[in-house]
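Format notes (please read before filing issues)

Several people have asked whether sequences and structure tokens are stored in separate files. They are not. Every record keeps both together, in the order shown below: the sequence lines, then the token lines. Line labels are part of the format and must not be stripped during preprocessing.
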Amino acid sequence: MVTAILGALGAFAAWFSVIFVKDIATHKGQLEDNSWTKVFGIGFLTNFLDTLGIGSFAPTTALLRGFKQVKDRVIPGTLNVSCTLPVIAEAFIFITVINVDIITLISMLSAATIGAWVGAGVVSKLPEKNVQIVMGVALLITAFLMAAGQLGWMPGGGSALNESFDGVKNNLIYESMNIDGKILGVPIGVTGIKLVIAVFVNFILGALMTAGIGLYAPCMALVYLLGMSPRVAFPIMMGSCSFLMPVASMKFVKEGAYNRRAAIGITIGGLMGVFIAAYIVKSLPLTILTYLVIAVILYTSITMLIAAFKSKEKNVNLELE
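Then the structure lines:
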């Protein structure tokens, strides 16, 4: 079944690549005036961090805005289109190396993909100030979830069995793992009402992803809250994004609601960042990096909300005049 999932990912990658390249070729004389160096560097750095589980949408948004590379109105589309191929590469890696219950995995991936299909058609046509408000609030929530995880406020993973165990027990799917030198059974999937909750929430997260709201942090929180091993968050969240992003990105490409030049640079830099992070970097102190990213996310959230409300005040003043 894992082979079938990877085969489907390959098909999605090929399908998206053809449409993406065709759109770029059609508009090759109308590309924006972004700096190739800046967008390539942004893609490399943020997707490098993304592969380590930190997430790429929030820092990419912050850097694109900080270096004035993309207008706020097309940030959601640019994020989805440019990060699609790098995220598919991540999914190949983590679905291959980390075990997760196949029913849980397929159910959550499918829910996120359907959610993205429903959400992209609406989000791509939203007014700029609406996009800013949605992204600003969502980034603020994401920062809180990441900080809560770092400070130990979030419950992390299910309780391991006091014995080595592979299989189903107490309606949970377990796998034997080495924990502090002991081989214990740890949940790698969910069943029953927990599976229903997982599917429903991942559907919502898939729809919100098309607004430029990263799925990683809330999906990781969901995995923890449902009692699964923190490790399985990686194939679930990266697999979810890898299936939903091509679907969402197709609509953004069709609407022309993305920055083409930035998408090219971020995609190329992002792919390089993913493979270097996955195959060369074996260990990295992520605590300081994570706090830095949280600070960037908070800054971006605040600046977006300020920009949105300034725009709203400006419109009110114009109406009064």
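For reference, the curators noted about this record: Residues 286-320 form the longest helix (35 residues). Residues 316-321 have pLDDT under 50 and may be disordered.
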